[in-house]
Design a protein that fits this description.
Layout lengths: L8 H12 L2 E3 L1 H10 L2 E6 L5 H14 L2 E4 L4 H7 L8 E5 L2
Parallel strand pairs: 2-3
Antiparallel strand pairs: 1-4, 2-4
Helix pairs in contact: 2-3
């Protein structure tokens, strides 16, 4: 029987927000919402391209959003969010 892995608090929050529909998926959509100041946290997959990471770091610094690097690849992040595609960047909407 497979052992259950411990899930960090960040990943629990991530799953909850995706389920509630309070998450933005995709680099371009996240950048757009980030520039508008609508995002609180941004999650990056471990294999996120360096150019994208640089853009997000600059914009997150300007609006005060938290940038979180995950240990999951984009494929694993897509599976975690129960999507049938890879997810490299994911943003959480401010409440």
């Amino acid at each position: 029987m497979a052992k259950k892995k411990e899930i960090s608090e960040e990943l629990k929050l991530l799953k909850e927000k995706v389920k509630d529909g309070k998450a933005i998926l995709g680099t371009e959509r996240v950048l757009k919402q980030l520039r508008l100041g609508n995002l609180d946290r941004i999650f990056l997959a471990s294999n996120c391209p360096s150019e994208v990471k640089k853009d997000l770091t600059i914009n997150a610094g300007l609006v005060g959003a938290t940038l979180i690097d995950l240990e999951l690849s984009n494929e694993e992040l897509g599976v975690l969010c129960k999507k049938n595609f890879f997810i490299t960047v994911l943003g959480i909407v401010k409440e």
